[in-house]
Amino acid sequence: MKTKSLVALSLAATMAISLTACGSSAATTTTSDTAASTAPAAEATAETATETTTDAAATDGGSLVYWSMWSEGEPQAQIIKSATEKFTADTGITVDVEFKGRSGQREGLQPALDAGQTIDVFDEDVNRVNGTWGKYLLPLEDLAKDYESEHGNTTLFAIARNAYAQANDGDTTLHSIPYQPSIFGLFYNQTLFDKAGVSGVPQTWDELDAACQKLVDAGITPITADDAYMTCIIGYQLARYLGQDGVKSLVTGEAVNGTTCTWSDAGVLSAAKDIEDFSKKGYFSANISTNAYPVGQNQEFAIGDAAIIPCGSWLPNECKDYTAEDLKWGYMNFPTVDGGKDDRTANNIANQVFAINKDTKMADQAFQYIAYLTSGDVDAQFVSDAMCIPVDKANSDTWPTELAAVKTDFDATTTYYDWACGVESNADITGDIKDNTIKLCAGTLDAQGFVDAMKSVSGQ
Amino acid sequence: MFQREGWHRCKAAVTLIKWGEQMKEHKKKNSNRGMIITFLAPAVIIFLVVFLYPIIRTVMMSFYKIDAVTDKMADWTFTGLANYQKLLSTPIFATAMLNILKIWLIGGIIVLGLSLLFAVILTSGIRFKKFFRAVIYMPNIISAVALATMWQQYVYNSKFGLLTSVLKALHLDALAKTPWLDPDHLFWSMLFAYCFGMVGYHMLIWCSGIERISPDLFEAATIDGANKPKQFWYISRPLLKGVFKTNITMWSVSTAAFFVWSQLFSTVTASKSTMVPVQYMYLQTFGAGNAVTDRNAGYGAAIGIVLCICIVIIFTITNRVIKNDDLEF
What we know:
The structure holds two protein chains of two kinds. By secondary structure, chain A is of the alpha/beta class. Chain A has two domains: 37-182 and 349-406, Periplasmic binding protein-like II (D-Maltodextrin-Binding Protein, domain 2); 184-347 and 419-458, Periplasmic binding protein-like II (D-Maltodextrin-Binding Protein, domain 2, 3-Layer(aba) Sandwich), CATH 3.40.190.10. Helices cover 54% and strands 12% of the residues of chain A. In chain A, α2 (39-59) runs parallel beside α3 (75-91). Chain A starts with a helix and ends with a helix. By secondary structure, chain B is mainly alpha-helical. Chain B has two domains: 2-61; 82-321, MetI-like (MetI-like fold, Orthogonal Bundle). In chain B, 72% of the residues lie in helices and 1% in strands. Chain B contains 14 helices and two strands, in the order αββααααααααααααα. Chain B has helices spanning 2-61, 82-89, 91-122, 129-137, 144-155, 162-169, 173-176, 186-212, 215-223, 228-239, 241-256, 260-265, 277-286, 297-321, and strands at residues 64-65, 77-78. The radius of gyration of chain B is 29 Å and the shape is flat. Chains A and B meet through α1, α4, α5, α12 and α17 of A and α1, α3 and α13 of B.
């Protein structure tokens, strides 16, 4: 009996150990999968690790873990990888870079931080980092003091401070370091503008209307867009009439900073009528209702089949493989409308930011790494290889040629909108806003129909 | 007298032996029970930790307002039935439920019907059976992301798409102009593409069921003058009842988790037309698209619970309507 019990116990123990082993092998597999999906990164990191092990032994630089929002194949990831290798060689600090991608970062970062996993540095959109993950951030005022005065872009630092303040009772302490700034507006093909005889950059809605009419007369499709950015079109137009607080109030049904708006407001109908008018005049591409991102930007705008497209300043980098040889890049902010609350100096300037985990034991090294990635040669490399807007003051005159036209309007911006001017603030109705805007542009829904549909969805 | 005493002694001895055997049996059973408990314990404990605990936690979460999935319980705010009340009064959730119902019912009829048809044809002795089976199954070995991208960016493309080109070549110009990806057609385009990818999987299940039926039955039916449709109706159909149930179960399970296709057919910002409950749950739990929106993991949990209840109802109805195999073959 005793023997049997012993046998049973040992078998059970073996089984349990096997299961545990399976678990760890599964864990290893997951890691391997991740490693496989980021093979070159892992290789680079491994190389870096090997190189740095020797260096670290000599310099004792320590080791950092950086969770990156970029995916393996993106140009930004390639720049970060090579920069990290150089950083390790220069400083002796090893950095384990894990390219998570946007989804991976949004789903996995917070659980990992809650579980106490070692993550020293992470990055994502300025509002998400400072708002959603605000409680995990190390205050950076002291660490970044010299860096900010030497390299910091005033506008971007103001946006970063404001993003933290919005979500943390007005606290404007710096908690993140901006990089990869972008502006959302209307890109246009200067060659097609010239061909149609459009001179100057449209500043108002009427001027844009006139420009589009000239393009139509010249047989050119004036505007195309992708489904991914449809909410930005209506968001901007609404914000021009109501301001961003008005737009947020409109979609959330609550007062925002003392502003209350409903779908019955005259500004809403005016915004919808502007778009309806453009649709009736045939300014939108015939494919506007079916352009699944990135069809509009790659197969219509970049090849010269349409003259204008609403997009962010990442556009030239994204469609560089499709761009027509004669395409000269032009840019304008969304135009000012008659009787609107905000004018063309109010724009969605966003950026990614780096942040440091408040529980890190390597704050100095982490900041050193961030400063390395956001200044000097690495910042210049972001400009040259990924067509990004520079963040280092020293590089402020080195904008990519494709974005040269953006600089004036970027610098002229004084009011900073959130993504899509806040029109996506309520996930319960964003799908309706997107679908109804597509219909409005395609002409299958008129302005009043748009307003009625949104009133119905919002229970107004 | 002595004979009777001997008989009693003999009877007592037999009883003693029987008792001894019973005791041995009892001890054996006891030792078996020990073995069973010892072997089962790790699996039961793991089940409790891995499955039961998350189920209980999810049910609890659905009664709270929770910012992030991993927030400590101390940070949860009790809201009672508020999450469920909000669900019932939110139009987009009703749309999501209606969409998933359409995918389950209409998609189910298309997929199970087509897959059964293919299975019957493939098991009827046609040539190149293995080739056709591999071709029809192939979409299942391709990633859903690649498949959805192929349908969205190539097949349905309004400028250079396969459908547009083929229809133009056939001089069906009006049909070629159909905006397959606009909000009015997007759902049906997505559903058709999804069904295309699912037929092969269910066809294999049907095939395995049909191949279990003895060829003698079909041979006898052929001799009796039954044609193929009659053979299917009177032999295959009744004997495939169990396989039908399996197929409905598998289809329901995959439909309940419908997510990737919706995500890919509504790039960056979710569309109303393709919204499904799991996608809505994801948006509420992890935040939506590019905008930073309010998150409520408790609300997400409530969506999961409602979805779970719906699945249980479907399984119960299926089990009631389709009885277990009452035919032996």
